């Protein structure tokens, strides 16, 4: 399975809508991993992630940022296909513009 995306969430997290921020929370990432992977300079963003009221889960101690995806290497995004993901993560991907490409 190939994937297309994440075109709708390629912004500094603090600048995203609430629904897109919540979607990224479901994808096993944090602001640092997401923004650095996608080459986003968020130092001049309108507000920081914490000021925007967005609290990401704490990165597991053994997790590292997967620079191909912008999520932790423990995420099912890295290790599985679309059909292996729980419905909440599939919906999060759709919110960010990812689609299952055949």
Q: What percent strand?
A: 5-15%
Q: Would you tell me the structural class of the helices and strands? A: alpha+beta
Taking all residues together, what is the mean pLDDT? Answer: 82
Which residues sit in consecutive blocks of at least 5 with pLDDT less than 50?
none
The arrangement of helices and strands along the chain is: EHHEEHHE
State the helical fraction. Answer: 25-40%
The global form is globular
Strand order across the biggest sheet? 1-4
The separation of the N and C termini measures 6 Å
Largest sheet: 2 strands, antiparallel
Radius of gyration: 13 Å
- How many β-strand runs? 4
Q: Please tally the helical runs, counting DSSP H or I stretches of 4 or more residues.
A: 4
């Amino acid at each position: 399975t190939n994937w297309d995306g994440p075109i709708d969430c390629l912004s500094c997290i603090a600048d995203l809508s609430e629904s897109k921020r919540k979607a990224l929370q479901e994808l096993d990432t944090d602001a640092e991993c997401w923004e650095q992977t996608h080459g986003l300079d968020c130092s001049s963003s309108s507000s920081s992630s914490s000021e925007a009221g967005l609290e990401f889960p704490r990165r597991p101690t053994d997790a590292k940022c997967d620079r191909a995806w912008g999520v932790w290497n423990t995420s099912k995004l890295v290790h599985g296909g679309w059909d292996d993901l729980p419905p909440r993560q599939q919906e999060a991907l759709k919110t960010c513009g990812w689609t299952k490409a055949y």
